[in-house]
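Narrative summary of target 7.
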Amino acid sequence: MRFLFLFLTFFAAGCASDKPVPQASDVIAEGLIVPKEITSPGTEARYWAYNNFVVHLVTNINEQNKSKTPIIYVHGLGGNLTGFAPLINLMHRSKAGRPFYALDLPPFGESIMRNADLKIHDYTEMLQEFIAQLGVPKVNLVCHSMGGQVCIDYALANPGQIQLLTLISPAGTYEKSPFVNGATNHFVGINVGSVDGPGTIAIGDLSWYDQNFARRMLTDNPLVLVGIESFRLNFHNRIQKLKTQTLIIWGRDDQIFDFVNGAYLKENIENSVFYVIDGADHTSFRTHSELIAKLIQKYL
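Modeled conformation, tokenized:
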């Protein structure tokens, strides 16, 4: 158990943004913050309170574009909405263009979280309530890594609500044993063997894990705690139930989740297309934003 916990610590570090994780603070008192990297016309920042969350978001919604189907951007573990800046700037160049909302998942970016355990389903329920409050017939989702996991969870429960689901190197779709072996070999050079075989299912599924205990006795680092929750929730055997039109994008040099997972998704999601980007890693939406913008626009 100790080794698996250490592995998940490395996993969380590997998935994280290269920016330090901000400490939870009273962002409301600091005022609304519009990231300087986002230059989309008419962009403004807002805060939205939901249960134990105070969610920071940016949007370009206005009278000219409010009737169009919006795009919602959902980032990955340890990241924040600024990671989508290159893509947003390409996708939303005019006030009359398609509206967008980019969210900071609490407690990352400028969002905060009060108390409580944090599960992937909590993010999904937050996203569901946010979309419900928008009052629109459909949305488009652009989701990266753990954000993709959240969006898959949402799409399985709300297939009729999504026009296009764009998954960029999504988490939670791999077979656990190959993933653990590949990740530990990459990060620490160790082959750990199967975590899903007979007699080890409880370890692979972390059924013994208690987040509150881990927070009190081991670490309160949200990267690690949310990373473990991401590992626990896996859609590998449920992905066939996803009926939403899906665009799958993967970097061929992704060292976090192998691009062969994208081929598995393509084979098992009925209404899907799959693109592998040569020379791209886990953050292809940053380094190849122009190509990804063209792909998204092609299928909208």
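Confidence is low (pLDDT under 50) at residues 18-27, 180-193, 198-204.
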